[in-house]
Structure formats: C-alpha cells, structure tokens
C-alpha cells in the first residue's frame, strides 16, 4: 500500500471516529434534556422540600443514566435558576415556581391564595381612547374611551407579573374609587355589575421582555416571559376585561386538565 493510500485510510478512520464521538455527545445531550424534564417536574412538584437532591450517583441509578448525563441535566436546571450546587451540600432547590391553572377563570390572588398574599402596585389608571384592536375585542365603537390599568403584581415581595387591562368605561369608571391594590379586578367587576363572570378566551405564548417590562419585572432585558392574553366575559356574554399579562417565566408554571373530545 502506498503512503498516499495509507493517509487516505487513516483520514477515513479519523473522520469515522469524530462522527461517532459527535453522535455520542448528541445522544448524551438528548438524554440530559429528557432527564432534566423529569427532574424539573419533581422539583416543581415539591419532591425535595427538606434538603438537597439525591446524590448524582443515586440519580444515575434511579434514572438509569450515566453520571455525565446526570451532571449535564443538573447543569440545565441550574441554568434555569431552579437549582444550584453548594460546596459540601450538593445540588439544592433555590427557586420556586407557582402553579397557575388554565382550566378555571380566577384572579391571580384567588389562584395563588395557598402560596401567600398577592400585592398590587397600581402604576396607571386612566381613561384612554381604545385602540382599534381593543375596541373590536370589547365590542365597542372605534375610539371609544376605555379604562386602562397597569399593575405590577408581587407574591412574597417578588415581582410576578405585569398586567395591562382594558375595561369599558361604563363599568370601569366605578373602579376609580375601588381598592385596586388589594382586590382582584374580577371580584370588583362582579360586585359592580351584580353579575358573575362567565367565561374567558385565552392565548399563551413566550415573548421577549421589552426594556420597560424587564425593568418593572426585574428581569434581564430580552429574557423570555410568558404572555397570557385573556378576554373575560360576563355570564350574559358581554366582553368586559381584556388583559395582557406578562409573567416571569422563572416564577410561574401553567397547568390545566384537558379532556379529549373528537
């Protein structure tokens, strides 16, 4: 075999070795993501309330994973801010996400009452001409005045959401004299109208925090936040509350019960 042939053979073997190494790394990364998903569910479900997570060797046995895969999975959770590694202690839970259900129409204070008191910093309450999309959603003539409310909502003193709310002025005017700092708007709407809320249309997506939202929520500019758009109706079907709610994604988790119907 000539020298050039040997070089080509060695090059081919080298390429195969590199490709195999990359394939192993991709497979381990896939397994690490899968394990991180399982551990995240455990962490958010309160499976480790009294101390650190099990040792890496225990997790490796429990989940039939390599130690390297376990380390990569824990690194992913640490990058999310859920856990941290403390010298002499191990990996511990350092953050909590609060559950927000999507299968019942409830205000934030009602939803999180088991986790503490929600406080509201009312940043803006002012009548404004309704932008065309807002007027359309609230079934109002274009340019009709609506009450615009901006609130920063905290739980345990930590910023949780920035709520932008539009309410028809014939109802919203009465809110100007109400305690918006300590009462959910849903409760006030039901009290003022004498009718219960009936249903709401919602959409949920991840968006990047703009400079204003990031500053108010004390989150990095450009960080992903959960945007919940919700249009609530009274029991007679009238739309009365259009909200754009930006949640800190590292402090809230959305859940619901879905039933299959074909």
Top keywords for this entry?
six-stranded antiparallel sheet; two-stranded antiparallel ribbon; about 35% helix; about 30% strand; elongated
How would you portray this structure in words?
With 262 residues, the protein is α+β, with helices and mostly antiparallel strands. Helices cover 35% and strands 32% of the residues. It is built from eight helices and ten strands. The protein has a six-stranded antiparallel beta sheet with strand order 4-5-6-9-8-7. β1 (83-86) and β2 (90-93) form a beta hairpin. The radius of gyration is 25 Å and the shape is elongated. The termini are far apart. The mean pLDDT is 87.
Structural class: alpha+beta
The Cα radius of gyration reads 25 Å
Helix and strand run: HHHEEEHEHEEHHEHEEE
Give the averaged pLDDT, no decimals.
87
Shape: elongated
Distance between the termini: 68 Å
- Unreliable segments of 5+ consecutive residues: none
> Roughly how much helix do the residues carry, as a percent range?
25-40%
Structure annotation, total helices:
8
Beta strand %: 25-35%
Strands of the widest sheet, in order across it, are: 4-5-6-9-8-7
Which oligomeric state applies? single chain
